[in-house]
Amino acid sequence: MAHKEITDAQIRHAEIFTAIYQKHEGKSAELRELECLKVQYPATLLPIRDKDLFAGMRNPGVVGFAPKNEDGFGYYCHVNDMEGYLAEEGNTEENKKRIRTLLDFWKVEQSKARVRAAFPEDMQKALPYDGLEEANAAFPLYRMAGWVLDYSKLMELGTYKWEQVGMTYDPEMADKKMPSKEEIRYWESLIQ
Hints:
about 45% helix; globular; about 190 residues; two-stranded antiparallel ribbon
């Protein structure tokens, strides 16, 4: 299987991210996530290019945290990419050791591995793998990312009225008018 190109900087970032993750073992989930994201975002956000229409393009690390990505949810590791990088010719023994250390840790520590390990034995037997390319009765690790926006509520209330539904908002925006029906229809058309 082809793997994405991995740079030494990405491996170094994975080591830093892993150290922060380990340092916050046993602390609150929120604190651990916050501290991990503090090192993740500066390392993964790309600079704005001349023709970019939006800021915030990113190149996700080989290890990181995300609500959903191609390798799962929560804390993730791009195992296939790292194994492919490990097998490349020209890697030094020191570099291979660094990659193996990361792989050994994240193969059991990434969120999907931890959730799967928590399955009761009978569930593990009934659902032995997660690959959508294989036939299976269910795929319980999908849809666990946990964030599904209520677009109807967003369009109905707008971002100016989030406080009414218990969300935080920018106080400077509180006195702004509600969007018109035409504005709402426009925004709804973009998400359909």
